[in-house]
Design brief:
443 residues; alpha+beta
């Protein structure tokens, strides 16, 4: 079977040309919009801003959505924030989360047979050639074992390792250039963290180990459902697991289900994240909502364990101290806590309190006790976050932040977007205290 039949562009030159063109077009569009906004006001300014965001979102989807590999994975990372964006933009970016062009079935059959060492008909009693889902480095097929068990077979695209390597080389150059336009900091440690997590996702044996470990850690939580790995039908490039279905995210977030149920789902997601950060210190760090399915009993099925972030205890303790200081309104302590996390000015000095205050106000509101906060109740949340970023832009260029926080913050921000889509309400502050308090020093 010719391995180039996937039609995946693997040439480093071809892929960097597409990525470079995307960066150039989006950058020029944003610059033009910012210049024009200086002479606009009121509804016209808001309309033009949204139009520009939608236009750039379409550009991202059109380019990254067809490239697979690390380029598409980075695009999906961007799409995690769609719940915090205007609805028109979120609708466009959402297509990156669950849909990608399929590879021909005969190519994927060949990959399965080559990896598992036998014809498909001997490996499975049934195998659906039409992929159930396609993503950045592989696609999923439904199948059935000889004993009748329904399974999902995750198959890696042929030559995807070469594709990812080409992307990593190109993305490092492009992202470093973009990063240097905003921050006067060392990009190398941050890139190292991103690269390591992306490369881990290429090893399905590593993902299978992650699934088994997290299933054991969550064994006493019936509301979290993790499919079992079928080890005898799995390799580093094929991962077979029991098929566990649920309500897809688009339907779960729709008006088809009562808000009370969506609140339960939101709280379950949030607690799953808090346990990962504070208790297990094994954080499911790909909060793409397409990696979850929902059930009418309030439980959630968790998929895709390629990105599991191991959180050092000291880092978890710092996050616990930070969020506790926010909820207790001990603002004077926060610059020191952030410095303990590694977030400082370029010269190593703590951040100024006036730079931190607006963010403290925002998170204190989200974690308030009464009345409980409902994500989505503040229709201007995106605007507030953007306004804070623009107001503090000149201070942000001289920041230093540790590589360890990248995927922790990615998970937190991504789940905030998920809670926005669910419009979930819950005792968020009480949940945080329950899991963070055991990590705090005794007073």
């Amino acid at each position: 079977m010719p391995r180039d039949r996937t039609n995946l562009p693997t040439s480093s030159v071809r892929r960097v040309a597409r990525l470079g063109s995307l960066v150039g077009r989006v950058g020029a569009s944003v610059l033009s919009e910012r210049t024009a906004s200086l002479v606009r006001s009121g509804p016209v300014k808001e309309l033009k801003r949204t139009e520009n965001l939608v236009r750039n979102a379409i550009r991202v989807v059109e380019t990254l959505g067809t490239m697979k590999g690390a380029a598409m994975k980075v695009g999906q990372m961007l799409s995690l924030y769609e719940g915090l964006l205007p609805d028109e933009v979120g609708e466009v970016l959402r297509t990156l989360q669950g849909q990608a062009p399929r590879v021909p079935s005969e190519v994927m059959r060949y990959e399965v047979e080559e990896q598992l060492g036998a014809p498909i008909d001997e490996l499975f009693a049934e195998f659906d050639d039409d992929a159930f889902a396609a993503a950045s480095i592989g696609q999923v097929h439904h199948a059935r074992l000889a004993d009748g068990r329904a399974v999902a077979v995750k198959v890696q695209y042929p030559m995807i390792r070469e594709v990812v390597q080409a992307d990593l080389d190109n993305l490092r150059v492009l992202l470093k250039a973009l990063f240097s336009m905003v921050f006067d900091a060392d990009f190398a440690p941050l890139w190292s963290e991103m690269r390591d997590r992306l490369l881990e996702e290429l090893d399905y044996e590593h993902e299978a180990d992650n699934m088994r470990r997290l299933a054991e850690l969550e064994a006493d939580r019936p509301e979290i459902v993790i499919p079992r790995v079928i080890g005898e039908r799995s390799t580093s490039r094929v991962l077979t697991m029991e098929r566990v279905d649920g309500i897809d995210p688009a339907a779960a977030c729709s008006d088809a289900f009562p808000q009370e149920l969506k609140d339960r789902w939101g709280q379950t997601l949030f607690e799953f994240q808090m346990r990962g950060l504070y208790r297990h210190r094994e954080l499911h760090a790909d909060p793409n909502l397409a990696n979850f399915a929902f059930r009418e009993d309030g439980s959630i099925v968790v998929y895709d364990f390629g990105c599991l972030k191991r959180v050092p205890r000291a880092l978890a303790e710092s996050y616990a101290a930070l969020v506790t200081a926010v909820m207790e309104d001990r603002r004077q302590a926060i610059p020191g806590v952030l410095a303990g996390l590694g977030l400082t000015r370029g010269d190593g000095s703590p951040l100024q309190l006036e730079l931190i205050d607006p963010y403290v106000d925002l998170f204190a509101e989200l974690l308030r006790d009464e009345p409980v906060y409902r994500f989505g109740e503040d229709e201007r949340l995106f605007d507030r976050v953007m306004e804070l970023g623009m107001a503090n832009w000149r201070h942000a260029t001289d920041l230093r932040f540790p590589q360890e926080v990248i995927f922790v913050d990615r998970s937190i921000a991504g789940h905030f977007g998920n809670l926005m889509r669910l419009r979930a309400a819950g005792p968020w502050g009480a949940i945080v205290r329950r899991y963070a308090r055991p990590l705090l020093p005794r007073r």
